[in-house]
Amino acid sequence: TEPAPPPTSPATAEDPLPADQGCYLFQNQLGPEITITLTRRGGDWTDTFKLQPNEERPYCLSVGFYDYTLDAPPPYGALNDTIEVKAGDRFYFPIRPKD
User: Which pTM was predicted?
Assistant: First the structure.
């Protein structure tokens, strides 16, 4: 048996995430369960999901502006902010206590 010939070009890893969306890896580094609510500006779409302690979840969104709420039990409370999602975005979104 002869060894297989070497490849003619290096293999490239393809991004399995949608190219026309921005994707975030939400990571619960806070401790307690966190409830995350995302609302597209204009209010035509909302989604809510929970992350257990040390859980992480990939989440892809269509292009646009989104308001989000991160809600955790006391002593943490809720945090509200906005993100702009662009096609091809790939970001970590760690949720952890302030230093």
Answer: 0.80
